[in-house]
Automatic annotation (TrEMBL), chain B:
The complex is composed of two ATP-binding proteins (LsrA), two transmembrane proteins (LsrC and LsrD) and a solute-binding protein (LsrB). It holds the Pfam family Peripla_BP_4. This is Autoinducer 2-binding protein LsrB. It comes from Mesorhizobium denitrificans. It comes from the Bacteria. Keywords: Periplasm, Signal. Coiled coil: none annotated.
Length: 334, 368
C-alpha cells in the first residue's frame, strides 16, 4: 500500500525515514498488489498444468480483455474510495451511458460522438454528485444510493426496456485490435499505468491520499478539500464513461439493464486490489489486477470443472480477508 | 466503522447459497422428469385434483371492473415488456379490468415481496405475478389470498397453495424437446454441447435442464453433454463464459445452449467473434429482438420460446375468469379470448400451448 507522511501521526517518525531495503519498500508500498499478482500467477500455473489450453491465445484474450471495462471503471472508483468516499451508483451510470451511446450510434451520429458524448455526460452527472458530497456535505453513500435509484429507474422509464440493436460496425471498438491486441486490453493497461503514475507523482494525486488519510491535516496544509472532492468525482465519471465505451461496444446488442451488482463488482475490485475502504491508501494497479484476478478465477473454475458457486464464495472470502488485513495493518500503525 | 459494515455486506452478497442440487446434468434440479415421445405424439394428461389456494371472503367481482396489478420478476427487459403488453391488450379488449405493471428493477425476491405487500395494503382486486423464488414469495401471496385478493401466477410459479392458478407458458418437457431436437438437427446425433444458464437454482432454467437431460437420454442417446456454466443475468459474463467454453473444448464443442434471453445472444456473439459460426451451433431460449442480428447473419438457426404477449394475455383472461367465479377447481379448460380454450394441467395450471421456434423465416414478424 502506498503510504504518505501525511496519514501518519506526526509525533512518530515515518517508517520511510528508516530507509529499509528495496524489497521491504516494495512490499510496504505495493503489498496487496503483489499478493493479488502472485495469486494470478499461481492460478495460471496450477490450471495450465491441468489443461494447457488455459494459456492459449484465445483464452488469454478472454481473461485479460473480458473484465477490462470493470478494471477501467475501478480506476475512478479507487480514486473516490481513496478520498474516503464511495460511489454505489456507477453500475447504473454505465447502463445509462451505454444506452445513450447506442442510441446516438443508431441515430446516425458519427461514432466518435457516440463514444465520447457519454463520457462528458458521465463527468457532468458525477460532478453533480461531487458537489452534493463536497458542498452540501451529504455522505457520499447517501448521495450515490439516491443516484442509483434515479439512474436505474430513469433508464427503465426512458427506454421502456427495449434493447438497442443494428449498431453500426464502426461503433464496435471493443471488438477491434490495436497493435494485434484487443482494444479493451490496451485501454485497460494504458489507462491504469497513466492513472497510477499520476496518483503517485502529481501533487493532485498525492492530495487525494491526504484527504482520505487525514482530512483535517490535509485542509490544514492548504488542500482545497471541496474542490478536490468534486474533481475526483468528475474524474471518476470520466473513467466510467471510458468503461462504458468498452461495455457498450463488446456485443451487437445493448441491453437497457446492466449486469446485476456491477457497482459491487467494481467496488470489490478496488477493495481486493488494496484500496482501503476507509480511504487514504491503495493504488489503481491493485484494482486492475483484482479485476484480472476475478476473470482468471472465473475461467479457472470452468477449466477445472469446479462449480461457479465458488467464484462468489471465493470473492466474498477475499473481501473479508483484505478488509481484515487492512484493519490489522491500521491497528499496528496507531 | 460504517464502511467496515458495508464491506461485510459486500462480502456476504457474494457468498450466497452454496447449496446445490445434483442431477444428471449440473444446473438441473432433482425433481422427477417426464420426457415427451421422440416423435410428435401428444402426451395423455394425467388427472390431478385442484391444489391451488382459495381467497378468504373474496367479494363478488362477477362482471365488475377490477383493479389488477402485475408484478413480474423485474421490469425493463424485453420479455416482461411483452407480457405486460399482453396483459394490457387483454384488459383493453375486456373493458372491465384496470391493469398496471409494477415490478422490481432487478430480479430480487425481497424487492418483489415488498412491492406485493404494498399493493395488498393499498387494496387491489387481483395480483398477477412471476415469482423470483417459488418458496420465498409464498407467504406474501398467502397474505393476499387471506385479504380476499385473487392471485394468479404466470411465467414463474410459486408453491401451488400460495396462488389460485398458474398460467404455464409451455411445459418444461415441451421446451426441452424443442431445444434438444433443434440442437440434434444442427450438430448431429453424436455432437457434443455445453449449456450457459443464469444460475443453477433459477427454477425455470433448472427444470428445463433436467428435462433436456431426460429427453436427450431417451431420444438422442449418443449426444454428449460437456458441462453447464452459470452467467447470472449478465451479458458480458455470458459472453466471457461462452468464450471460455469455446477455448476449453476447441473442436470438440459443437453446440451451445443458451438458457436465458441474456445468455443466448451473448453466446451467439461469442461464437460470431470467435469465427465459429457454422462449426459451433447456438440454440437457445431468447426473445426474437435480442436474436435478430444473429439469426439474420445465419449464425443462429433456431430460437425457442413461446409468445410472451400471448402469455400475459392469457394470464389476464384467467384472472378475469377467476374473479368472475367461472374458473374453479375441477375445471378442465378456460376461455382466453382470441387464444380460444386453454386446457388445465397439473391440478391448478393452465397450459398456454406448444413452444414456438423462431427462425430466419419468421423472426421479423415479432417485435419484443
Amino acid at each position: 500500500m502506498a503510504m504518505t507522511d501525511l496519514d501518519i501521526p506526526p509525533v512518530r517518525p515515518s517508517r520511510a525515514v528508516q530507509r529499509p531495503g528495496a524489497i521491504q519498500r516494495l512490499m510496504s508500498d505495493y503489498g496487496q498488489e503483489i499478493v493479488v499478482l502472485l495469486a494470478i500467477v499461481a492460478l495460471f500455473a496450477f490450471v495450465t498444468m491441468i489443461n494447457p489450453r488455459f494459456i492459449s491465445a484465445n483464452n488469454l484474450t478472454t481473461i485479460f480483455a473480458g473484465n477490462a471495462y470493470i478494471a477501467v471503471a475501478a480506476i475512478g472508483m479507487s480514486m473516490v474510495i481513496i478520498t474516503g468516499n464511495i460511489d454505489v451508483s456507477v453500475g447504473a451510470l454505465i447502463g445509462v451511458l451505454a444506452t445513450i451511446s447506442g442510441t446516438l450510434a443508431v441515430a446516425g451520429y458519427p461514432v466518435w460522438v457516440a463514444w465520447f458524448a457519454p463520457v462528458l455526460i458521465g463527468m457532468a452527472i458525477n460532478g453533480l454528485i461531487g458537489v452534493l458530497v463536497a458542498y452540501a456535505r451529504i455522505p457520499s453513500i447517501v448521495v450515490t444510493l439516491g443516484a442509483l435509484s434515479i439512474l436505474r429507474g430513469g433508464l427503465i422509464s426512458a427506454t421502456g426496456g427495449t434493447w438497442i440493436s443494428d449498431l453500426p460496425p464502426a461503433f464496435m471498438v471493443a471488438q477491434k485490435k490495436l497493435f494485434g491486441l484487443p482494444v479493451p486490453l490496451v485501454a485497460m493497461v494504458v489507462l491504469t499505468l497513466l492513472a497510477a503514475a499520476w496518483m503517485r507523482y502529481s501533487a493532485f494525486g498525492r492530495s487525494l491520499y491526504a484527504l482520505g488519510g487525514n482530512p483535517e491535516a490535509a485542509v490544514a496544509t492548504g488542500i482545497p478539500a471541496e474542490r478536490r472532492i468534486v474533481a475526483v468525482f468528475i474524474i471518476h465519471g470520466f473513467f466510467a464513461g471510458l468503461a462504458t465505451i468498452l461495455f457498450a461496444t463488446q456485443l451487437q446488442v445493448i441491453q437497457s439493464t446492466v449486469p446485476p451488482n456491477l457497482e459491487l463488482t467494481i467496488i470489490t475490485a478496488a477493495v481486493i486490489g488494496g484500496v482501503s475502504i476507509l480511504g487514504g491508501s491503495g493504488t489503481v494497479i491493485g484494482s486492475t489486477l483484482a479485476a484480472i484476478l476475478f476473470a482468471t478465477i472465473g475461467s479457472a473454475l470452468i477449466f477445472t470443472n469446479v462449480s461457479a458457486y465458488w467464484l462468489r464464495a471465493v470473492i466474498g472470502l477475499l473481501i473479508l480477508a483484505t478488509v481484515l488485513a487492512d484493519m490489522f495493518r491500521r491497528s499496528r500503525r496507531i | 466503522m460504517g464502511k467496515v459494515l458495508l464491506s461485510a455486506i459486500l462480502a456476504l452478497s457474494f457468498s450466497t447459497s452454496l447449496s446445490q442440487a445434483q442431477s444428471a446434468w449440473t444446473g438441473g434440479d432433482d425433481l422427477p422428469t417426464n420426457p415427451l415421445a421422440c416423435d410428435a405424439t401428444a402426451p395423455t394428461p394425467t388427472a390431478k385434483p385442484y391444489d391451488g389456494g382459495v381467497p378468504t371472503n373474496a367479494p363478488d367481482r362477477k362482471g365488475k371492473t377490477i383493479t389488477v396489478v402485475d408484478v413480474p420478476k423485474l421490469v425493463g427487459i424485453g420479455y416482461f415488456n411483452a407480457t405486460s403488453k399482453g396483459i394490457a391488450d387483454a384488459a383493453k379488449e375486456m373493458g372491465t379490468m384496470n391493469a398496471k405493471t409494477d415490478g422490481p428493477s432487478k430480479a430480487n425476491i425481497d424487492d418483489q415481496i415488498t412491492l406485493i405487500d404494498n399493493y395488498i395494503t393499498s387494496g387491489v382486486d387481483g395480483i398477477l405475478f412471476a415469482a423470483n423464488d417459488p418458496v420465498a414469495i409464498a407467504p406474501v401471496l398467502k397474505k393476499a389470498l387471506a385479504a380476499g385478493i385473487n392471485v394468479v401466477g404466470y411465467d414463474a410459479n410459486s408453491t401451488p397453495d400460495a396462488r389460485q392458478w398458474f398460467v404455464n407458458q409451455a411445459e418444461f418437457n415441451g421446451i426441452a424437446k424443442s431445444m434438444v431436437d433443434a440442437m440434434a438437427a444442427e450438430v448431429g446425433e453424436e455432437g457434443s454441447f455445453a449449456i450457459v444458464t443464469s444460475t443453477f437454482t433459477t427454477p425455470n432454467q433448472a427444470r428445463w435442464i433436467s428435462e433436456m437431460a431426460a429427453y436427450q437420454a431417451k431420444c438422442h442417446p449418443k449426444m454428449k453433454w460437456l458441462e453447464t456454466v452459470e452467467a447470472q443475468e449478465d451479458n458480458i459474463l455470458s459472453f466471457n463464459q461462452a468464450n471460455t467454453l469455446i477455448n476449453k473444448y476447441g473442436d470438440e464443442l459443437k453446440g451451445i445452449f443458451g438458457m436465458t434471453s441474456v445468455a443466448t445472444p451473448a453466446a451467439a456473439d461469442a461464437v460470431t467473434q470467435a469465427n465459429k459460426c457454422g462449426s459451433v451451433a447456438v440454440v437457445g431460449l431468447a426473445t426474437p429482438n435480442a436474436m435478430k442480428p444473429y439469426v439474420s447473419s445465419g449464425c443462429v438457426k433456431s430460437v425457442v420460446l413461446w409468445n410472451p404477449v400471448d402469455l400475459g394475455y392469457a394470464a389476464a383472461y384467467v384472472m378475469r375468469a377467476v374473479a368472475d367465479g367461472d374458473l374453479k377447481g375441477g375445471a378442465t379448460s378456460v376461455k382466453a379470448g382470441k387464444l380460444g380454450e386453454l386446457s388445465v394441467i397439473n391440478g391448478s395450471e393452465i397450459l398456454l400451448g406448444a413452444p414456438f421456434v423462431f427462425t430466419k423465416d419468421n423472426i421479423n414478424d415479432f417485435d419484443f
